[in-house]
Specification:
390 residues, alpha/beta, four-stranded antiparallel sheet
């Protein structure tokens, strides 16, 4: 495969699929509960109960840089995990739920370029993406068929282990929840305090697994920036909540805390808007993914020209590949289904430097954000594995 980037591009870091990625975490916890049929590559010790807290936007590097802000979290840290590519919520949560890399579960991004649609598909809202009428696609793109792989919670429930999911109320019956949350008992929990209280109530039986999701750290990082006081304050609150939860766990419970991706700040001049760069827009009919992990649909026959133009313009800060080249690198995992392949687009551009590609005429809010993620850099890719046993 030809060298896709400039001469100073770093060696390509691949996610640690199969042995130390998010895809191994839930299976390892189920195995630790003594459930047959689940591997335990993370070597989690046996327990009667398991509690998993996923903090959206909790990256490993920023956690370790904030030892005084989050002393308890840092005190229980183990070797980190990789989130998988792209390092974004929908793909990471799907890997956690299925135990598979994105190339197999098919949720290959925040937004995707689906055949037959002239707007990208937003996996978080299960609707058409960007400005214009919001179109709910749960009828056309049935979530259970869009992601047909049986989930680990489904397999756990079949083996007699109830899995309770604690998260925002709007997650109930959402398209993404139907795609990856099958087999879970859903309980609305809008705050850290609600997650803590509900988790302790649900951990009164054995074996049982409770899974909480907390989104506010991610929101603070996106809007205010990863080094902002708002984000630090949220990290302090998380640290205190996890410590309090750990102190109240029933006997023989394992608590695991992780994230779905890290984050990096981009200054305004590091966010390139496609509308301002006709050389990048030429031949591109649709842009999906997110600022630091872009999927481009191109005019038929134009993919090669688009790759050349993007390598010439941003190749000093991005890996740029044709779809086949991107799949061959292994960033999506060792196997990419035809369903996943057609959602990637024709060209893939992935940031390794300080750059993001935005479109204010499609998503003006994203174009203004400070914090971004999606790529393969350690700041975005590495997530913590924090373990505590009662």
């Amino acid at each position: 495969m030809s060298r896709p980037t400039g001469p100073n591009a770093p060696n390509l870091p691949l996610p640690r699929y199969g042995f130390r990625s998010l895809g191994e975490l839930l299976a390892s916890l189920l195995s630790a509960l003594g459930i047959d049929g689940f591997a335990n590559p993370l070597a989690i010790e046996p327990a009667s109960r398991a509690c998993l807290l996923l903090v959206d936007g909790l990256g490993w590097e920023l956690l370790r840089q904030n030892g005084e802000t989050a002393p308890f979290l840092n005190s229980i840290a183990r070797e980190p995990l990789t989130s998988g590519f792209p390092a974004t919520t929908a793909a990471s949560l799907a890997s956690l739920a299925t135990g598979l890399p994105p190339g197999e579960h098919g949720l290959v991004g925040y937004t995707m370029a689906l055949p037959g649609y002239d707007r990208a598909f937003n996996t978080l809202t299960w609707s058409l993406y960007g400005l214009g009428r919001r179109v709910d696609l749960r009828g056309e793109l049935v979530p259970e068929a869009f992601q047909p792989v049986p989930t680990l919670p489904e397999r756990g429930a079949a083996a007699g282990v109830p899995i309770h999911y604690l998260g925002p109320g709007f997650h109930m019956r959402s398209g993404l929840s139907r795609a990856i949350g099958r087999g879970q008992w859903f309980h609305p929990a809008e705050s850290l305090e609600a997650i803590q209280e509900a988790a302790l109530r649900r951990l009164d039986t054995r074996p049982v697994l409770v899974y909480g999701y907390h989104p506010r750290l991610d929101a603070a990082g996106h809007v205010e920036g990863v080094a902002s006081q708002v984000r630090r304050d949220e990290l302090v609150a998380i640290d205190r909540a996890v410590r309090t939860l750990a102190e109240q766990l029933p006997d023989d419970t394992v608590l695991a805390v992780t994230g779905d991706h890290g984050m990096v700040d981009l200054r305004p001049n590091e966010r390139l808007d496609l509308a301002d760069h006709p050389d990048l827009a030429a031949g591109v009919t649709l842009m999906a993914g997110e600022a630091r992990a872009r999927y481009l649909r191109t005019v038929p026959g134009a993919a090669g020209n688009v790759v050349d133009a993007w390598r010439s313009r941003v190749g000093d800060r991005m890996w740029v590949w044709t779809r086949d080249e991107a799949i061959a690198t292994g960033i999506f995992g060792p196997r990419v289904t035809e369903q996943a392949r057609e959602r990637i687009g024709d060209v893939v551009a992935v940031a390794y430097g300080r750059i993001g590609i935005v479109q204010r005429d499609v998503d003006p809010a994203l174009a203004r954000l400070n914090g971004h993620h999606g790529s393969l850099t350690p700041a975005e890719q590495l997530v913590p594995l924090l373990m505590y046993r009662s």
